[in-house]
Amino acid sequence: MEKTVFDPAVLEAVRAAENVVILGHVHPDGDCLGSTLGFRQYLRENMPGKPAEVCLDNPAEKFSYLPGFDEVRTAFDPGRHYDLCVTLDASDLERLGEFAPYFSSANHTFCLDHHRTNPGFAENNIINGDASSCCEVLYGCLDPEKISRETAKCIYTGLVHDTGVFRYSSTSRKTMEIAGAMMEKGIDFGEIIDGSFYRKTFTQNRLMGRALAGSRLYFGGGCIAGVLTAEDMAAEGADHNDVDGIIDQMRVTAGVECALLLYEKAPGEFKASIRSNHTLDVSRIAVSFGGGGHIRAAGFTLRGNSEDCLKEALEAVRRGLQEIREMRPAGEDAPAPADSARRPETTHD
Length: 349
Ligand SMILES: [Mn+2]
Description:
Blueprint: H1 9-16, E1 20-23, H2 30-46, E2 52-55, E3 84-88, H3 100-105, E4 108-113, E5 124-127, H4 134-139, H5 149-162, H6 173-183, H7 189-198, H8 202-214, E6 216-218, E7 223-228, H9 230-235, H10 246-251, E8 258-266, E9 269-276, H11 282-288, E10 292-293, E11 297-303, H12 306-327
Parallel strand pairs: 1-2, 1-3, 3-4, 4-5, 7-8
Antiparallel strand pairs: 6-7, 8-9, 9-11, 10-11
Helix pairs in contact: 2-5, 5-6, 5-7
The structure holds manganese (II) ion.
């Protein structure tokens, strides 16, 4: 790996600040936790005595192996003001949630991010839309020699989560080089991947089993679809957090272009997750129902009974698949997908 020249701007801003608050986005994911806690850990080790705290809303317990997890502040305190506010993995001000006033009242603000839609909402911004993760952006702002094993755990976690374990098209040679550098710091990379990405609770596995057993193939096997009703959720003692990952298992069903999962979030209100593999633009389907997302991963909400909601969503999928067939020259098989089109771009917000 070539010697990295890092951008010291954010470290200089911290050096000049009296104190620092580090913020991420609402419903923090692995990249959000990895980048905020990794940055704090780096500061703790390399700028001892500099007051720096991380504020996030309720991080998931599966990330408790990250350094400083137990010290995350989860409640907003209107009496607090900070000299410098650094935001990581948040694409706009709204994503800071209840902690946004810390940003607005800070004397200086700095934003590190990798969302292409980020308008550059801070005083200083380092935004790289080509980076796999905010942790990749953060890595470029730290002295690689001074990254400890504890900080490496955080950065590696962010890379793993935002690339779906190095599968999505956002994964680059650079991503893998940073991952390699983090491995050389002595982290237990297998446990990080298993423990924070693949491990499921018994309830989550049971719910996935129920969803898969109830799923059906449509349109000659081109689409797999399933529904989890409120009764299904109650029967497994599951809540909305337990639905994560089911759609990803459905998507890898052989022969399937599209996967669709509806679950009843509130009585008569169904949250739909939709994925495609090669050709179908699922963001267009999601937008047609008032939702949003990416070409290969999107979501929307439907209201009604489960049969009607499923019917309505399937009709949109049928139309989408038909459009693709009509665009294809007669007698030709499905075009070989470009490598970058193979995987969902990203499934995070
Ligand atoms: Mn991210």
